Amino acid sequence: MPESLSTSDRLGVSLFHRLEPLLEQVSKPIQYVGGELNSTVKDWDCGGFGPGGEELTARWALMYPDAYEIGLPNQGVMILYEVINECPDALAERTYSVWPDMEALLRSEGISQFTVDGHRALRDFDLFGVSFSTELGYTNMLTALDLAGIPLHACDRGDDDPIVIAGGHAAFNPEPVSDFIDAAIVGDGEQAVLQVTELLTTWKAQGRPGGRHELLLRLARTGGVYVPAFYDVDYLPDGRIKRVAPATAERGVPWRIAKHTVMDLDAWPYPKQPLVPLAESVHERMSVEIFRGCTRGCRFCQAGMITRPVRERSITGIGEMVERGLAVTGFEEVGLLSLSSADHSEIAQIAKGLADRYEGTQTGLSLPSTRVDAFNIDLANELNRGGRRSGLTFAPEGGSERIRRVINKTVSEDDLINTVAAAFSSGWRNVKLYFMCGLPTETDEDVLQIADLAKRVIDTGRRVSGQRDIRCTVSIGGFVPKPHTPFQWCAQLGAEETDARLQQLRDVIRADKRYASAIGFRYHDGKPGIVEGLLCRGDRRVGKVIEAAWRDGARFDGWSEHFSYERWMRAAAAGLADEPVDVDWYTTREREQNEVLPWDHIDSGLDKDWLWQDWQDALSDVEVEDCRWTPCFDCGVCPQMDTKVEVGPTGKLLLPLTVVNAGKDQLLETG
Length: 671
Ligand code: SF4
Prior knowledge:
single chain, 671 residues, alpha/beta, Transcription Regulator spoIIAA, 22 helices, disordered N terminus, disordered C terminus
């Protein structure tokens, strides 16, 4: 821990004068400077003071635990940053993971982890919110806590330390990080952060009764904030969990913690002022979320399961967000985001409306294409009017029709071939196909069929286009079973088996010279997937593994150049030495129906019996339909969360209808 953490006795002062001399010694210094277009630095005491001098400002530091270039475009953090900063008595600043060169300098100079907005020390804030998209960000949170001088373990924190709150999809099983966080919030954050903010300011106005413990208790009693310290976990002799229950001393703490769901997306048109990065980032465009949730029922997809039900933004709402976002950012590309954007019930009108409005301008529109059907090609053509038709991506996910029934990805091989035929005949030249390896019940044969599929894609492309320069890129990731999905009980395929299966596939693709140069093959080895599997289905005992890995140097585990499997296995051996469980127990072991799962007390709304039945259906190759278009099949979310599917048609129009460059053409003609 750095020795001197502050240059002043006052909280919230800028550390920039101490950081500035370090910037010329680190890579990409611009990422630490802040001041991006649409960023905000509010007065530290913007909430003022109560009659007895109580300070009333709620101060959030929000972290995306990865490098700036990955973290800045993150929609979740961007939305919460803006929602909080719109409150007169609250402020939010952002912090990202510092690279190892900056970490070393901060340690040697005794400077804290800082926010990029006000360059304020993390420990000065009331609340430290960390958004986890993936479990591989856990060690980066520990670095930030340590650099900030905040005790790593929640039980060692005092009244002057921030409340550390985890959010994001990975927080749906917060148990592996329960030693390090004070609380976790699952589901949509917009209303949740306002609720926490209000609760904090009320507690401050009352003179902070009961200190940190009382504040956490008030949060826990809302029913929507999980405070791990208020729950006891008992284990069976064989290592399985016996039960998770509220600690008896903490009255009023619920048995299960509910996820948050924003029902009316039009009422939350955020980000209204998207941030524009100073340094190069992964997405040089703005994004508009066109709907939330997915009910297609892909059994491997945690995001689809935990974000139910579907809630669409109206056409008007989308049109207004696109127009305002472009005006305030200067971006020239807009991505229409969601888990499966082509599924918006009014996507054809949205695509045509936006294409008409921005035709002839520099503005590009993009739709992450994953749905495999010809309709998607029409959409892609619409959004790329006049643009270069470089590549389209589809995600059949499984190599054989049988395995696609197991995962409920209802795409036939003919669907795929018809779709790529439509794409190639519309001028597209490169099709990227995304698959997973290691799916439940998968055999070598299921994976080898990917090669046949890729060859048919090339043949189809050559035939319909009459060209030889057709490419198909096959991209394969290892499957990791996730909590709150029907596959939460299944055995993960071991790293060596995954690698062997992919090696066979590569050999088969390379062996056929007629196609070898036309088929690109990208895959990751199976080892990171095992660590991800350990972290995502782990329980509280895995906390020791995370800490041991971090102390041994684990940082940026999502980056292949920083990831070390051997380090994680060393950490697991040390961290689990006194336990009757090991890495295989967490990853490659199939669970029984009655096993208490570490995340059972986190209520995603999904009925556990329904999930089990869906798992059994998977094993019998039985598919389920999408409840957007068919009757409800009782997954449990809507009655449990008092929500419902919200889809169009809304009868609304994309507004305004003006064609953007009409005036410009006129000017040119008259000029
Ligand atoms: S409860 Fe029914 S309507 Fe709601 S998401 Fe589940 S299956 Fe669909």
